[in-house]
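This entry is set out below.
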Amino acid sequence: MMNPVYRRRLWMHRVGILLSFFAMAIGIFFLMWILLTLVTKGFGALSFGLFTETTPAPGNDGGGLMNAIVGSLMMVGASVLISTPIGILAGIYLAEYGEESWLARVTRFVTDIMLSAPSIVIGLFIYAIYVAKVNHFSGWAGTFAISLIAIPVVVRTTDNMLNLVPTSLREAAFALGAPRWKVATMVRLRAVKAGVVTGILLAIARISGETAPLLFTALNNQFFSADMNAPMANLPVVIFQFAMSPYENWRSLAWGGALLITFSVLGLNILSRTLFSQKIQN
């Protein structure tokens, strides 16, 4: 006969599994609902002109999002160039000196705060220290804002990945006479390069759809401009403005832009998961 304690635990286990399944089903349902809505409303806006024409004037038909797409790519690309070396080097420092230096402990604490900081606060910070000083919005201001969002993601991922390297690998490198900086960069970092790349991809996915920081920094530009020192068009802000407009053409373009960002972020997340799973298998 089954033990009463075991029977009660078995039923609690089954109830827990059932509740977990329902929670997962609810999450997947709303996710598929969002994706279906985006595809239904945004697929009709996809055309060759969406990528080759600039945003139209109010009330005009046609037009596209070329200036917003190029502006977003330029700012995100510049942000990656800024945040990647800073984040990786900071992550290496935390992994090597995290338990020995008070500065490393403070850095990890500040990184954790920045990870949870609202993006609008970061936008206001860049507005106060940069935009208000130079008296104009610019693509560089937007780049600095989203870089502050990307850096802690890269730092935390690099730190976590480096801590997964077996101690025996480090000890073997030290036994061969390798200096500490070479062990950190040539042994530990090389061993977890797939995980670090995953962190970079996750940071790109995080900043690709940020709107609030760009409202206070890059603002927007209806015309095509590659000048990073001037207001620059970007997809998140264009979507925000067009979705609230009374013009049907603008709302259609907003749905098309939302579809582009959503599937770009989804693709980056899938790619990062694939790289991470390959690292685990290796």
About this structure: The radius of gyration is 23 Å. The domain at 48-281 is CATH 1.10.3720.10 (MetI-like fold).
